[in-house]
Amino acid sequence: MAPLVIEFGETYKITGIEFKPDKVIKTVNALIKQHLMVVIDDNGIQGGIGGLITEGMFSEGLFFQELMLYVRDSHRAQTIELLKFTEDICKTRGVTAAVFGQFSNSKVIERFYRRQGYEYLETHYIKRLV
Asked: Which residues span the domain enclosing 101?
């Protein structure tokens, strides 16, 4: 039987993917409870990374899923420091991988993530933290 996905009142069947119901329920609970927000505060918030710490539905262990990353042009030099600080916090919480999305075909973004040890997978950069 194909798993069902309910989104905005619509129900979809997905063939070829085996969701584990117990992990889906844990993920939904994590969406509500497990979040992390790290900001650059320099006379006001100048940037930040926000995301969720949750169990993977297709793998073991905790991972950090970035939902938002923004740094003002004036503070871009602090982006790597912000990323490393976020990774360090994640490690202290038992996170084994971090996932960041890319929504444009930018070689600059690609080089940035690869230089920080991330690998490109479909539309995301993934890095093992331990």
From this structure: 22-128
